[in-house]
User: Fold this.
Amino acid sequence: MGLTGLAIFKLLPKTNCGECGVPTCLAFAMALAAGKATLSQCPYVSNEAREALDAATAPPIKLVKMGSGDKVLAIGDEQVIFRHDKTFYHPTGIFIEVADNDANLAAKIDEINGIVIERVGQKYEVDGVAIANASGSADTFKAAAEAVAGKTDKAIILLTECPTCMEAAAGAIAARKPLLYAATADNYEKMVAVAKKVDAPLAVKGADLNAMAELVAKIDYKELVIDSGARQISQVIADQTQIRNGAVKKRFRPYGYPTIAFTTEADPAMEVLEAQAFISKYASIVVLKTTKTEYLMALFTWRSNLYTDPQKPIAVQPGVYAIGAANENSPVYITTNFSLTYYTVATEVESTRLPSYLIAFDTDGLSVMTAWAGGKFIGEAIGPWLKDSDINEKVKKKVLIIPGGVAAIKGKIEDLSGWEVMVGPRDSSGITSFAKLRLNV
Amino acid sequence: MPVEIYKDKFTGKVLEVILGATKEQGGTRAYTVKLGGSSTLPFLYYEGELPNRPVIAMEVWDIKPQWSSSFEPYYGDVWNDPVAWAKKAEEYGADVVYLKLMGADPELENSRSAADCAKLVKDVLAATGAPLMVEGPGFPEKDNDVLQAVAEAAAGENIALGAAEKDNYRGIAAAAMMGRHCIIGRSPLDINILKQLNIMITEMGVPINKVLNDPITSGLGYGIEYSFSVMERARWGALIGDKMMALPVVCLAGPEAWRGKEANAANADAGPGWGDEKDRGIIWEAMTAAALLQAGGDLLLMRHPEAAKLVRKQIEELAVPNKY
Assistant:
C-alpha cells in the first residue's frame, strides 16, 4: 500500500551498490513497493528518506494494544472499508461500563467475569471493564481501579477527564496497561503526560470531528484511540465512516487510529442494537452498560459474523466426533466439515439427548449441497473412507445417517463400505423429530 | 483548518419502487409505501439523498405455523384466521402485510386451491389498509397458479408477488404484468444471479420500477455475513451506475432469524450463557434485521411484534440526518 516503486526510487541513494542484495536501486524500490524487502536492507538510506518511507508504508490505521497477560486486546490496523474488499482484522472490543462509586462494584465485576457464552463451538466473553469516575474523587477512582484490577484480568478503560484522578488510578494499575479516556482540548497536556508516564494508550475526544483531528495533530504521542464526541447514532455512523474513509483512502494521519464509541440507549435491547450499528460501522471499541447475556450473545454473534474472513471457508478438523457419552450402540451421523454446517448439525444432534457420533467429512470446508455438487461429498468418496475408518471399531451397528438432501448417494456408500445407510432429514432442524421417530429415543 | 469531508461521488441511485395503490390510484390501500431512491450508502445523509426510510413488513400465514411459543400471546387467537391475523399485524405497526400462502403447499392434505388463495387475498385487502405482499408456497407450478389467481383478484392494488427465481420467473412475471403488480426476484446470495434475474424479469416486459430484490437472507449466526456482503456489493454496484442492481432490497429477517436454535431453544435446551428464552428470541430477530439495515435493507420482513418494535425505534433514530 502507499507509494509506488518509482516514488520510493526517488528517495533512495541511487548508487546501485547492490549491498541490499538486489542489483539496482530501482529493483530494490520495486521490491519495497511489493512488500518483498524492508528498508533496513539499505545501509545508505538517508534519515529524511526513512521517515518519508516509514510514514508512507505504515498501515492506514495504527495497531494499538491494551491490557496485559493473555488478555491483551489489539485493536485497529484495519485496511479496508468493506469486509468483502479483503477482511476486517481486529474484532471490536466489547466493554461494560461500571461506576467507581457503585456500592456493589465487586459483585458487578463478578457478574462481568461470569459472562461466558458458548454457541457453535465458539466462546464469547466480555473484553473488558470501563470504570467511570462518577464520584469525581481521585481516591475513589483509584480504589475502584485497584479493586477491578484485583478481581479481573480483563482489559480496563479508565473514564475520567480529570488529570489528577487519571494519574492516581492509572498509576495504581499501570502494569495492566489500561486505556486512558480521555484527553480533551482542556486537559490534553496533562493527560498526555500521564499516558507517557504510565506507558498506556490514550483516548482523544473532540467536540466534533474537526476538533478531534486538531487535537490529535497537537499531541506528540502515538498510542492513541480516537472519539469524535458524537453520541447520536446516525452522527456516530457518519463520523466513523469519515474516519475510516479518511484513514484508508486519503491516509489522513489524524484519523489513523482505532476508534471508541459509547451507547446512549437506556433500554438494554435498544442498547445492543445501537452497539451493533457501531460494530457494523467501524468502531474498534464499544462501551455499553447491559450485562444481560441473551442480549450480549446476539451482539457477540454479530461481531463474530462480521469479522469472519470472507476469503476462507471456516472448517473444522475432519474426523469422528462424539456428541455426549457416545458408546457402541450410538447412532452415527455424517455431515461436512464446513464449520457452520458441522456446528448446526452438532447442536441439533446434541438436543436429541441421545449420545451419538458425528462424522465431519473432509469437504475442504464446503457445505453439504455444494460439496455434493463438487464431487466431494459423494458415495465414491465417503464409502471407501468409511470402510477403513476407526468408527468401525467404535460401534456395533453399522448404520450411517446421511443428510436428506443427498439421499442419492445412499446406494454408492452402501456398495463401497458395507454399511447400511439411513436417509436423515433434509434440514438439520428435523434431526430431533427424526431421532424420536426413527431411532426410538 | 477544518478537516476535509470525504464524499464518494456516485452517479447511480437505487430506483424508487412504490407498493400499494390508494383509491385515486385505482386501488383501495389507505396509503402507499415508497422503497429505495438512495443515492448513497445507508444513513450517510451528508453525502446523498435517502428519501425513503426502511420499512417493516410483517409476516402473516394462511395456516397455523409451528412457531415458538413466544408468539402465542400476540397471535394465539388468530392462528387460524389469516384476515384477523393481518389486521393484528397492522395493529402491531406493520407498514406492509406480507402474506405467505403456505396452505397452498401441494403436499398438504387440504392444500388450498388457487381460487381460495385469491379469495383470501381479497378478504385480507378488504380488512386492511396496508400495502400487501404475497408469497406462494414455494412449489414452482403451484406458485404460478396461485399467484396468477391472486394477481387477478388484486388487480389495481399494486401488491408484490413472489418469489420469482431464476428457474421459475416467467409465470410470476406474467401475473405481475397482467395485474400491474410488483414482483420479488429472489437470488441465492449471488450478485451475478441477482443481476441476471433482474434482466430476465424486465426482458419479459415487467417495468423495472416494479421489481424488488430478495438476495436471500441468512440469519444471525448462520451466514448473515454472506447476506451483508452481497447487499453491500449490490448497493455499491447500484450507486456506481449498474441499473440492474439498483433495486430496493427485501430482507427476510424474521423467518431466517427464527430458524436458529438460539431464537427458539427453551431454557432447558439452551447453551451456556444463553439467557432467558423470551428476550433471546426477540433480540435474535431484531439483531438480524438491524444488522441488515446497515448493509442497505429497504424492506425488512419481520415476525415478532416486539422485535419489529425495537427495529422500528432504531430506524427512527437512524433517520435523523447527519451533517457536516
About this structure: The beta strands of chain B are 16-19, 33-36, 55-61, 96-100, 132-135, 160-164, 182-186, 211-214, 250-251, 299-302. The radius of gyration of chain B is 19 Å.
